[in-house]
Specification:
Elements (H helix, E strand, L loop, with lengths): L1 H26 L8 H31 L5 H28 L2 H25 L1
Helix pairs in contact: 1-2, 1-3, 2-3
């Protein structure tokens, strides 16, 4: 039983590590404008990330079934910590993708052009 518990906890640690790697990747892009290749990479990584929650829930449930009752509170605390990291990471991925959709980029460029046009018009009327 102890061997099974240790094996499951290693699996859980690997899943947590994958979320950490995903977070570290996307966190570098938060203040950048990614190119098309990077956006495709973000999409692919997000697809892979989505399955991790189900895998974590399966492993965590197995752990909770076999741990002694006295250790159950510590083990259930893993749920909240993982879910917080997971959802924050997924939200970052989706935000990067949403912010870089062609319609959003067009809106941003349009407003920039509008401000530029206004500045040009005001400069021309002064002259």
């Amino acid at each position: 039983m102890a061997e099974l518990e240790a094996k499951l906890k290693r699996k859980r640690a690997v899943l947590k590590g994958k979320v950490t790697v995903a977070y570290n990747f996307i966190n570098k892009l938060v203040d950048q404008t990614p190119d098309n290749q990077t956006l495709h990479e973000v999409e692919i990584r997000l697809e892979r990330l989505v399955g991790l929650l189900d895998n974590f829930q399966e492993v965590q449930s197995q752990i909770e079934e076999i741990v002694p009752l006295g250790n159950l509170d510590a083990e259930t605390g893993e749920w909240g910590a993982f879910e917080n990291s997971y959802y924050k990471t997924v939200a970052y991925y989706k935000t990067i993708l949403d912010d870089n959709q062609p319609s959003n980029l067009l809106d941003n460029n349009s407003s920039a052009r509008t401000e530029s046009d206004r500045l040009e018009l005001s400069q021309n009327s002064v002259i």
